[in-house]
Structure formats: C-alpha cells, structure tokens
Amino acid sequence: MQIASKYEPNRVEEHWYAYWLEHDFFSSKPDGREPYTIVIPPPNVTGVLHMGHMLNNTLQDVLIRRARLQGKNACWVPGMDHASIATEAKVVAKLKEEGISKANISREDFLKHAWEWTDKYGGVILEQLKRLGCSCDWKRTKFTMDDDMSASVIKVFVDLYQKGLIYRGYRMVNWDPEAKTTLSDEEVVYEEKQGLLYYLAYDVEDSDEKVTIATTRPETILGDTAVCINPDDERYHHLKGKKVIVPICNRVIPIIEDEYVDVEFGTGCLKVTPAHDENDKSLGEKHNLEVIDIFNEDASLNSYGLHYEGKDRFVVRKEIAKELEENGHLVKTEQYTNKVGLSERTKAVIEPRLSEQWFLKMEELAKPAIEAVLKSGEVKFFPKKFENIYRHWMENIRDWNISRQLWWGQQIPAYYYGTGQNDFVVAETKEEALEKAKTKNSNIDASTLRQDPDVLDTWFSSWLWPISVFGGILDPDNEEVKYYYPTNDLVTAPDILFFWVARMIVAGYEFRDERPFDSVYLTGLVRDKQRRKMSKQLGNSPDALKLIADYGADGVRVGLLLSSAAGNDLMFDEALCQQGANFANKIWNAFRLVKGWEIANIDQPEAAKIGVDWYTARFNQVLAEIEGHFGKYRISDALMAIYKLVWDDFCSWLLEIVKPAYQQPIDRKTYETVIRLFEENLKLLHPFMPFLTEEVWQHISERTPENALCIADWPKTASIDEKIIKTFDFASAVISGIRTIRKEKNIPQKEALQLMELNVEGISSKMDAIVKKLGNISEINTVNETVEGALSFRVKSNEYFIPMDGAVDIEAEVKKINEELNYTRGFLQSVQKKLSNERFVNNAPPKVVELERKKAADAEAKIETLEKSLASLE
Fold first, then answer.
1. At CA 787, angle to CA 786 and CA 790, rounded to 5?
2. Nearest to 201 by CA among 218, 189, 185
C-alpha cells in the first residue's frame, strides 16, 4: 500500500466507513460477552447536523468504540423522533406552498403527506452522523412512529389509564397559537421582554368615579368578568359591592375582594380575566365568575372581540390602546419589563387557555426515579451538580399534559360513544373499544365510535426509548431486552434533563422495575467565542458538514472534545478544529518517518533500548490515567492525556531517541518495538480519531478484516516503572537546558559539546546515552566546583556547565551581555524611581504597587545572573 505524502481525510473517511459497514463491525447480537449499550438521543426527523449533535454523538462514539475494543458486545442503537410539532409545521408549510390547507383535507390525506415528507426529507441527520464516523448499529435504526414503537406507546397509555394514572381534565394549559396545540410546562421557555404597562380607567356604575387598573395586555379587557381589590386596602373600601363598566364592550362586572391582590403593584386594582390567566382562573372559581374566552385557536380575536374579530392579538393590542386613548380610558403607559412564555418549538408567545386535555399523574410515578438518583445512586449523573436541578424538578413535579392537538403522532386510544363526559372507553384497538363500549350500551356499533382526534406528546413515545427499541413493552421477556437492558451510558444535553432523562427513569421503574441506564453524561452547550448560544437566528453556528470537509471528521472530533469537559459549556472556535487537523498530520508524518527508515540486522543502540523502556513505562502510566478519566467521564481529559503522550512523548522524544543517523539504518529490534508501540498508541486514539488511526493501522502491515483496528484489543494495563520515568524526566530537563544554550548562543546542533555536572547524583548513568544523542554531547564528566568560562544552567538543585572552547564568539557574547545589562539597569532605575515616589505608593492600588516591586526584584535577579555570566567570560 503506497503511503501518501500528506493525510487526505476526505478520501480516507469515505473508504474506511464503507469498509467497516461492509464487514458488519457495528452490528450486535446477544451472545456470551458483557454487553455495552447506548441508545442515541433520537434527533428530530426534521433535523440536520449541528454543533450540539456533533459534540453529543462524538462522545457517544468514543464510548462505544472503546467498549468494542475492550471486547464488550457494543450496541449503539440509532433512531429518530417523529417530533409532532416540528414535523407537522413542515408538512403544513409544504401543503401551503402547493395551495392546500390542512383545514380542507382529511386526517388520512394529511398523514399520507406527512409520511411522504418523512420518507423524502426525514433521516438526513442519520446519514450525516456517518460522516462524523458514528459507529451505530444501523440495522437497528428505530423511528418513534414505527408500527411496533407506536403499538408500545398505545399499550402503555392503556395500561396507565387502567391503573387510574391517566385522566381527562379541564385545565388552564399553555397554548401555542402557531402550532395550534397545547404544550407542557417544560416546553415553555421564558424570556424577558420590554413592553408597556397600560393604566386603564373603568367607570364605576351609577357614579362619576373611575377606578384605574394596570395591565400589560389591554386586549384582554374584552374578557374581563370582575375587578378585584384587597379587602384591607383603605383606598377602595367605598367601592365594596359596586360594579364597573368595561371600556369598549361596556360589560358591567362586579368589584370583588380578595387578599390575593398586591396593594403595592400598579394601582392596587386587578382586572380579572378567568379564561386567560391561571391566577385569574383561580379567582374566578373562588368567586364564581363568568368565563369569557376571547381568542380563536390562532390567537386572533373571536366574536367577543367585537369590531376586532379576526385580528391578531398583537395588532389588537396597538389598536385597542389607541381607541382607549381616544375615548379617554387610557390614563398613561409606562415602560415595563416582564417574563414572557415562548413555545420552545415555534417561539410563538404562549397563551394561557382553558381546555380539556389528557393528563398523567406524576407524583407517585416519580418516587422510584427520585430514589434511584438522589438516594440509592443506581443512576449516576456526571457531573453530579445536575442532581440539584433534578431534585428541584422531581420533588415539585406536576401532572403531565400528554395530549396535543395535532394529527402527526400516536392518536390517543380513547373512543367516544356518546355526548356525556364519561361516554368513552380506552382500548388498544377499535375492535377492543367496541367490545368495551357494548358492555355500557349494547346498541353501539363501529360507526358510532369516534376516536379522540388528539395525539400524544412526542415525549410520551421517547420516554419509552431504552425499552421500546428492544421490544420490551410489547414482549417484556424477549431475549434482546433481557440482554441489553438496562443500558450503560446515556449522553445528552442538560436542557432535556427533565423532558427526557427524568421521564425515561420514571418509565424504567414503572414498566420494568429497573433503571434504564447506569450513568448519565451531561454535555455542555456549544457556544461561540462571545459565549452566545449557537443558533440560526444569530447566524453564529458554523456548517457542521463544511467543518468536516475542511478539517476532516477526526480534526473536528478532536477540536470539539479537547474543550468540552462534562457539563461545562464549550466555547467553540474553528481554530480548535485546525488543532485537531494538525494533530492528525503530526501522526501521519510520524508514521511516514518511521516507515521510511531502512531496517538492518544490527545491534540495538543503548539509547534506543533506554528510550523504548522509558516510553513503555510512560505509556502504562498514561493508560492508567486514561482509565481513571473514563471512569469519571472526563472524556476531554482522557483525550488530552493521549494527545500529550503521542505528540510530546512519542513524536518529540521517543522518535528522536531511536531515529538513526542520516542515511543510516535502524536496528530491527528497535524498529519492531517502535511499530508495536505505535500500534498501541493507535488503539488509544481510535475512539477519538477512528479514520486516521484505521488508515495508519492498515498501512503498517497487511491486515485481514478480522485484524482491523476497529475490532482490535484495547491495551491492557501493566505495572509502571516509576523510577525510569522519574529518571528520564530529569534527563529530559538536562537536554532542554542544553538546547536552550544552543538556541541562545546560536550553537548549531551538529557541533558536539562537552557537559559537566557539579552533582554526581544528577543524571543516572543509564541516561547518559540519551543525553549524549539528543544533546549532541561528546562526553559527560563530573566536577567538584564551578567551571570558569563555561556556560551554565540548573536542573533542580544540580548545576551543569558547558565549556565554550571556541564554540562561542566570546567578544560578541560579552557585547551582547553588556547591552542586556545596560538595558536592565536602566529599566530597574525607572521602576525604583516610581517606587521612591510617595504619592504613587500611597495613591496607587496595592496590586499595582506590588507589581512594580516584583518588576524591581526580577530586574535585580536578572542583573545578578548577567553579571555572573559576564564574569565567567572575562
């Protein structure tokens, strides 16, 4: 196999990924080995690869590839989420482009369009994950709308309903007017928005008096059914029992009293709109107020909006404020900042809305999940700090609103046979529903049954993911779920800790009486250099595929992982990917160097023998560090340890130690050992840089598919020779000292030097050969006193001397030192002058004064060193 002059990631990646797939290296079937299982956080079927996906899936691939090398039966299950809201929005938009309105077609026709869209555009992200090198078992790819997955969801709904945990209730819900569906509390994000506080005057009935209320939403006055005052507010005692007239609609409404009203906020008078505010709803129920809903499902005003009917709420806000001002009911406006709820999916401003929905009781279900994370430790979070967030959510959990007013998703298996509130049955199929309904009314037939039009929340399918992907809901005792479940690691982002992670833990204990996974690794968010979260709106998110094309998948993987400690946000900089690409080139060039050496059957040099012994010990030391990092899920630390081992210890030290002289061969023993160590390095690197390492591995020697790096053996830990490592560290410091003198004095490497050490306990004689080779030292001697006229350096408490013997132009060196002495003395004088100024010392910040004193001390120390050097040359 010919070795290219430079590493070509685009060619290499396509070749080796096809090779891995061809030989089925990613597939898994139950066998006698220890299983290692990861289920992918299923990306939306509408999704495309972005930086968050790249980080998350790279981490998963590192874990799964390492497990595969460790000999475990590694199974990484890929898949996609049907994403009800996002997908339905895409399909509705596509139909609109074709002149078709969802309102004018049947549910069946809409679902045909949705499946066509999914088949054509869905799943793009899974193909993109292959570009990143993700070693998923693609034969196991699941979709939350697959027949078996949907059947699992329906079965669970029926089971929970029969246990009395699912109920239908009329509640105030979060309404997304763009998606035209309800949302759970967790799907609402709050942002501070700058708006206006409107002070509106209501006429008191049969009086010339007015009462003023303050509101941020003047359009909702059309749904007002009371004005509320605090019974202890003396300002309004005289209004007890009276009524006011709502401006514009002229509705007469009562003045009620309740301690809920904050006398300090606004005017102390509160307008009550029970249909459009959770707290107003509670007041309305307490005081038996009328409920008037003024909005259509798209948040335009309905007939209660009078002449504003059909107009959007925000348009009406401006227009009604103008009308109120014109008729004298707008007293004033003030700038006001408040938190506004937005739909996580569509970013539309949420409307509180009274609606009949399906709910899942969560309080009892949550208890085993709280125990597992916060008490028994059966499920561990990395980093542990996220347990506090989990605790807050789970100990304050509310019932889960699981119904959505959409068509794309699993349709709720409730069938209505009458008009009464309880005239319905819940069953897995329409046939079963008919049988149940007939026990209540024998005259019912199939045509009478009407299935609930709503679908289930997407999360109600994905909370079953670790179980349902192995068929564990429909067939709880099947071989696969018993083998692969519970899974090992879950890698995900903290922003779905409650949406998904907590609910999967709940489902695990409810449906299998067991945790769904052992550990949860929570990544940070990928941010730009200005710490902003990456988003399409800000335009600060780079094209993930372009990064791969520019830097190679391995370069991008390394760039991401080097700066992504668990739970900490990643400040992404494209330079990180360049660093990763540079690392790939470093390894490739190191390989080319080694393969370019001529091999001969000659004796092994002493330096080479010591070098490989040292590197073997160093490798074992780093391997132990890496195992520790993986055990604590410090993946970036593990990569950094390998990075330094390969770049510094292997490339910069070992290869220099063993490298033969110019146009000379290397001995066979050293060569074979270096190749073996190179292979061990590749094994450590493979989970992080799969493409490059497989390419080098396959170039090292002819390999059969059974010997591919992808399925090789992870290095085994061994005893560590601490003594040789410590001795080498000292020797390398001596070599660095020699190199510094060469650099400072412009002494070429080819010119041999003598080295004298004052302390005979300095370099172990075992390291003499390495110091001589790398420092180009002709001989090493010990001395009992300072060597006059020699250049010196220190390593710890030991002093080393290099006699000049004409190696340095003494006259030029004296001139150079004198120039530096003069400059440093002048600098010291300027600092001392500043410090002798009492005004400066007394008025400057203490840190500034301390910095100047340090400058003076450093200058004095430098002058002393320069004077000693000058004395040794004169």
1. 130
2. 218
Write down the CATH number for the domain with range 810-873: 1.10.287
User: CATH classification of 544-720 is 1.10.730.10, yes or no?
Assistant: yes
- Mapped onto helix, strand or coil, the DSSP state of residue 4 is coil
- Amino acid sitting at position 339: K
Domain 725-803 sits in CATH 3.30.2320: yes
CA distance 379 to 375: 10
CA distance 163 to 368: 17
φ, ψ of residue 53 in degrees (nearest 5): -60, -40
DSSP letters spanning 163-175:
TT-EEEEEEEEEE
Q: Residue ranges per domain, the chain?
A: 181-351, 544-720, 725-803, 810-873
Report CA torsion sign: 443, 448, 451, 453.
negative
Span 417-444, pLDDT tens digits: 988 888 999 999 999 999 999 998 888 8
Q: Which two tokens stand for residue 461?
A: 């399918």
Which tokens go with 827? 């600098």
Question: Which residue's entry shows tokens 């020779």?
Answer: 721
DSSP three-state, residue 521: strand
8 Å CB contact between 411 and 451: yes
What pLDDT, on a 0 to 100 scale, did the predictor assign at position 68?
98
Select the CATH number that applies to the domain covering 181-351 from these four: 3.40.50.1980, 3.90.740.10, 3.40.605.10, 3.30.450.150. Answer: 3.90.740.10
Beta-carbon contacts of 636 under 8 Å, excluding residues fewer than 6 positions away, are 561, 562, 563, 564, 565, 566
The answer to whether 108 and 71 are in contact (CB under 8 A) is: no
User: ω before 846 within 30° of 0 (cis)?
Assistant: no
Nearest-angstrom CA–CA distance, 672 and 554: 27
**Euclidean distance between CA atoms 857 and 390, whole angstroms:** 53
Residue that is written with structure tokens 């160590």 in the block: 677
H helical segments located in 596-721 = 606-631, 635-644, 655-658, 668-685, 690-700
End-to-end CA distance of the chain: 61
Tens-place pLDDT, residues 713-749: 999 999 999 999 999 999 999 999 999 988 888 888 8
Which pTM was predicted? 0.85
349 forms bridges with which residues in the sheet?
A: 342
Which stretches of the chain score pLDDT less than 70? Answer: 1, 535-539, 564-567, 759-764, 805-810, 872-874
Contact (CB, 8 A) for 133 and 691:
yes
According to DSSP H, which parts of 254-385 are helical? 278-287, 313-326, 363-374
Angle at 114 between CA 110 and CA 120, to 5 degrees: 145
The reported pLDDT for the residue numbered 217 is 93
Instruction: Write the DSSP assignment of 50-73 as a string of letters.
Output: -HHHHHHHHHHHHHHHHHHHTT-E
Longest CA pairwise span in the chain (Å): 120
Tens digit of pLDDT for each residue in 296-355?
Answer: 999 999 999 999 999 999 999 999 999 999 999 999 999 988 889 999 878 899 999 999
d(CA 423, CA 419): 6
pLDDT computed for residue 720 by the predictor: 94
